[in-house]
Structure formats: structure tokens, C-alpha cells
Amino acid sequence: MKIRLFPILFAVFPVFSACENEIIVDIEDIDPVIIMNAQLHTDDTTHSIILTIGRRDGTDPCAGAEVNVFINDRPPIRADEVEMEEMYEKGEYRFDAEIHPGDAVRIEAKAGRMMAKATVTAPEAPMIEKVDYSVKSYPSADNSYENTFHVFKTTIKDLPEKSYYRCDICAEYEVVTDTYSMTLYPSMTLLDSSGEPLLTTGWASDDDDFNLSNLFSPENSYSIFTDDTFADGKYTLNLRSSDFWVKSPWFVNDFSYLINATLKPTAIIKIYSMSFLQYRYIISLYNYDVFGYEVSILAEPVSLPSNVEGGLGFVTIDSCSEYRVALPEFEFDNNLYTANYSPCKPSDRQNSILLQLPSH
């Protein structure tokens, strides 16, 4: 199970957004409301909804709510509250369903006399035309060693109208020994975006006046981009993964399972399409992550869109297209186990994308 959610900023600032416009609200006039956040994906089948109660003096987890999900107005799917031992904090609800591009999803939540609902439609999925795979080495900054990368030249065809995208690379590993075999599904991203201009200095849209990266850091921690430079055309993304992270066993807790094992990795290149509101929400997360709620006394506060009726929060769906590439197999280095090796994990920056949760 993979759950990838954005940090829940509405749980921190429940009074600064309403509907799809940013409205400053007098805190004295606010009655308790449900704050609903959910990031749904067409490439997942288990989805999470986070509910909190927004009050005048803060927020509390929303436990014991009744949550139903309607897909294309079919009979409801109940979202069950996660048991205490499994969840990060109270107020998480999960449901199992396949969501396809074009599906309309409505989430309704009721807690006491409070009710909230949100309706979103999954966008058209991106079009991946081809992926050209190669392995390349580049000298380090001081030329003392070489960095080896798996490079995926990924050609996409732009969707009609103005389009917003996000990309990622993950992997699965077939583990084979003399006595057993199994498949591992790490949830961490393997994407190194530093080689792609659209994901570095070229990622900000020209009309993103709410994107503070235009004035400050060009970092694109969520790997998003627009079609500004290739509208109605094609573009080849230069995506890559470090060979070190591909071959490092950061994705297991017990290395003993890998002793004398052959690992056969498969890279999964993922391109997501999203709505403008989701794109704007991620920009707001970026601004908050980097600059805090307010950059300075002269700056406008970070604003967050909301699309929840009867409450606050943000619910969205992105649609995914995948391309799988088999990578060279390798033997597990038993010395890593005997040395009790514990490498740092690669960044979880992205698909971090309303709450950081364990993947299993």
C-alpha cells in the first residue's frame, strides 16, 4: 500500500482559506468545522482522508466520524477509521477503490452536527510516448570520483489546454536466493531532478505571481512543472536516478533477508497530471516549507486554496501514467550486513505529497 499525501497545512491554519478564494476571517466568528484533506491518486487503490476539527483556539483530530465516498454517483464506499496502532494520529480514514481518469469522486464526512463534503474529478492522464534508458557517469565537482546515474529520457506529449504535471521515479525489486524469492516495493522516490531544467531553474510558470520561488530559491522539491515551454507539443524530460541509491538496501529493515541474494530492480517512471488548484496548493506548500508562513512583514501571507463545502481543507486527485524499465540485476553486498551498514535514505520530498505516513 502506498499513501502519498501533502502536509496538512489546513490543520495549522484553518481560518485563512475558504472555498477557492483566499479570505481573511475574523476568528471570533468561526464555529467548529470539519477540516478535510485528501490527496488521491489513480495509481493507488488504498486512499487516505485526514479529518480534523477546526476551533477558535486550535484544532483537534476528528475521531469517530462517518465518512462515505461516492465514485460517479455509485453506491457509497465507507472509509474506515484507522486503528490506533496503525495510524500516525487520530483522524485518518482509509478506503479501497480504483479511481480512473474522468471519474468524479465525492467525499462526505459527518461528525456530530458538523458536515463537510468535497467533489473532484480525476484529470486526463499524461501521455508518455517513449523512454530511452542509459547508464552514464559524471565526474564529481572536484573530479576525485565519478557519479553513476541511470538516465531515463522520457518523452511526453502535452495534454490539451493549459496543463500541470508532476514526475517521480520509484522502483520495485525482485529478490532471488537459493531458497526463496520475493518482491519488495519501496515507497521512497529515486528521482534526481538536478539534470532537468524544467525541474530546476525552469519550473516556475510565468504567470505564477503567488510563487515566491520566482524571487528566491529555484528549488523544486515536489518535482512539478507546467507546459509553458511545450504547449500542445512534446518534451523530453532528462530524469535520472543515482546508481548508489538504486543499489543501497535502504528499503529494508532486516538485511538478513538479502544475504546471498540477487536483486533485479525495475524502475517505474511516473508522470502525473493535476488541476491548477492542486498545482497552486503545491506552490503554497513550497512557499511555506522554504519561507515559513510569512516571508517578511512586507510579504503577503502564504495562501492555501480550499474546495471543501461546509468546512475547510483541500481534496484533489492526480492521474498517473507509468513506464517500466528493467535495470541491471546485482548481487547484494553481504559486507553491508556484517558491517551493520545503515545508509541515509534518499529524499522523501515528493510524494510526500497532506501528511507523511508510513507506506505499510
Query: Which sequence of SSEs, written as H and E, runs from N to C?
Result: EEEEEEEEEEEEEEHEHEEH
Low confidence ranges: 1-19, 204-217, 294-298, 339-360
**Mind summarizing the main beta sheet?**
14 strands, mixed
Strand content: 35-45%
Give the class from helix and strand content and strand pairing: mainly beta
Mean pLDDT: 80
How much helical structure, as a percent, in the residues?
under 10%
Overall geometry comes to globular
Helix tally equals: 3
Total strands: 17
Distance between the termini: 6 Å
**Rg, alpha carbons:** 22 Å
What does this protein look like?
With 360 residues, the chain is mainly beta. Helices cover 7% and strands 39% of the residues. The protein contains three helices and 17 strands. It has helices spanning 243-247, 276-291, 334-338; strands spanning 33-41, 46-55, 58-61, 66-71, 77-81, 92-96, 104-111, 114-121, 127-139, 146-157, 164-176, 181-184, 224-226, 234-242, 262-274, 312-326, 330-331. Strands 1, 2, 3, 4, 5, 6, 7, 8, 11, 12, 13, 15, 16 and 17 form a 14-stranded mixed β-sheet that branches. The protein has a three-stranded antiparallel β-sheet with strand order 9-10-14. The longest helix has 16 residues, at 276-291.
